[in-house]
Specification:
Layout lengths: L10 H11 L7 H5 L2 E6 L2 E7 L13 H17 L8 E10 L9 E11 L3 E9 L5 E11 L1
Antiparallel strand pairs: 1-2, 2-4, 3-6, 4-5, 5-6
Length: 147
């Protein structure tokens, strides 16, 4: 396990650490799905993953839960970048709109999460998932509770 003191980092520092270190010894949904932190800025995160056959729904396209997880991660991590050290958050609400199906053949899906409002008790963010051709796969909004 890592010896880095994660609790002493601000949210932005932690997200940048995850981006650069890619800690393989910390279990996470990102590790499970193969997510990459492509861009980490205050109030904004870009995460990508490559689709695979394991992501298929019964129709043979990427399951909507993959897009929802990608969106929840991007928007939640964007909120996290606005938080001071020792402060957490949790998703209170997630609203996803699915636009088109994505293939399971290794195409890259990219999610961008952007904070709309970061308050003392709640934060809101919006996100979108694009395929390799820049076509919109899904978009979403979230409300997070600040802990």
């Amino acid at each position: 396990m890592t010896t880095t003191d994660l609790a002493s980092m601000t949210g932005l520092e932690l997200m940048r650490w995850v981006q650069t270190e890619r800690p393989a010894d910390i279990p996470s949904i990102g590790r499970l799905l193969g997510m990459r932190f492509d861009e980490v800025d205050h109030g904004r995160i870009v995460i990508s993953l490559d689709t695979r056959p394991d992501f298929a729904n019964p129709l043979g396209t990427v399951h909507g839960g993959i897009a929802a997880t990608l969106l929840d991660s991007a928007m939640g991590c964007a909120v996290h970048t606005t938080l001071p050290a020792g402060t957490g958050y949790t998703t209170l609400e997630l609203k996803v709109n699915y636009i088109r199906a994505a293939r399971t053949d290794g195409q890259t899906l990219t999610a961008e999460g952007t904070v709309i409002h970061a308050g003392r008790r709640t934060a809101t963010a919006e996100g979108k998932v694009l395929d390799e051709q820049g076509r919109l796969i899904a978009h979403a909004t979230t409300t997070c509770m600040i802990l």
